[in-house]
Amino acid sequence: MIWKVAMYFSSLVFFLGGAIFFFFLGLKSLFLGKVLVVEWEIFSLNSCLIEMTLVFDWMSLMFLSFVVLISSMILYYSGEYMKDEKDKHRFMYLVIFFVVSMGLMIISPNMISILLGWDGLGLVSYLLVIYYQNEKSMNAGMITVLSNRIGDVGILMSIGMMFLLGGWNFFFYQEAMAGGSPEMLILKGFVVMAAMTKSAQIPFSAWLPAAMAAPTPVSALVHSSTLVTAGVYLLIRFSVALEGSGVQSFLLIVSCLTMFMAGLGANFEYDLKKIIALSTLSQLGVMMSILALGFFDLAFFHLLTHALFKALLFMCAGVVIHNSSGYQDIRSMGSLVLCMPLTSVCMNLASLALCGFPFLAGFYSKDLILEVAFSSSLNIISFALFFLSTGLTVSYSFRLFYYSMTSLFSLGALTCISDKAEVMTGPMVVLSLGAVSSGAMMSWLIFPDPYLICLGGFLKGLVPFLVVMGSVFGYVVNVVMVGEGMKVYCGLKLTEFWGSMWFMPVLSTKGISESSLEVGSYLQKFGDKGWLEKFGAQGFYFLFLNYSSYLSVFQESNVKLILKSFMFWLVILSLFYF
User: Is residue 452 part of a domain?
Assistant: First the structure.
């Protein structure tokens, strides 16, 4: 109970108050058009100033308010979810440090101060992923931290290359970076690589489902508004520099492939948390793709709305897992709507918002993104990937609803599941309000001049057609061709390929390390334990040991040896004398 009270005061008073404060500051900055920049010089190096800079504009304040709001709800939610854990206080401090790192990254326009928050996110995410100390968590933690280190290298290389510009405040050098010189193209390539690793775009997508080894409250925080959105937010800040460059075209095709791959994989996954994680990956592809088309404001809009309903979806999944004695296989659930009506309502609300159901939060951002994308100069491949990915989103959402809510009850007879944990259901109700109203509210605030999109009848009706066809596809896949029948129909190898993220986890782990480990084993066998052992340290050891044994004989006071030596020298001298 003490833990619950502590969570209540720390989250609802401090964090929730901070969220309201930052939100109203963001509104003031948005309507007045003012930006507050705080800057102080640390030292100067070769005419390049090492500065600490913080920028408070409407975008950073608005995003910070959403991060703090979701963090407060998750900390309060953790009071019940983590109450039986031995190290729950350490967990709370790690989550708070995680939020502080994200906040530092949000308000930093300086590459060095961004690196502090960027590395803080990577370090704390590793500590949270390995919170449950077992082999699976350790493997997931290693692939998470090593994938993110690639992005850290990109940030470090971009810091080095920004010496050419005379400073690290990229806000002041966006026009210079927009040039087509080879140096600036390489600089933007490093920034895009860093963002791709943090936001898990192909080929760095394997770590995001693996990070589900962390506790569910961490998953709700990481996959809604913090770690995975850091890359998207960084590219939003660099949007002026990226505009019109070849990097945008590369980012568009990669993000569309990521969106399609994640949506397809979610339709073959049975782990509840991994389905939602692949859903996050699909939405990150949506944000990256519209960002690559040049509409950074739409990417930011979807970033905010997605944060609310994705955190809600993970919280609902956490309640189901918590009440189901830790089961995460959706085939082990069923008829939850009878036992957990409030959780079922919130979960379906979040799923409908994710699908873009009319007048929910996802509808205002996702429908606008699709219509803008369809009216842009997309090539046929990107258009087809957008088309298919949207239908797959509805398909895996229908699949999740079918298995967990409507099928037969598959848990044990003695299982007692209910909505009685008010500490967990309270934050879910708050985020449900956000999942319903945030889309309309934020569209009025961010876009005072609404987008006017004129599409033909075919393209205008394409989005609702995709929703209907996605639900039909989900019904056919999950009701008509269930289990082994689907594998036989689609082909076992093809199903395995689709359901394993195109073998990306294998390629990211065993595919990279297997050849180097084989070479290392060969060198150890024939080198360290073979010829190097023979002619190296052991060889020299036995050589010196043998010679020292001969020398030790001469050092002994042996009369016979002395007489033999004397006679030998007499013979030598006599030969020379005569």
Answer: yes
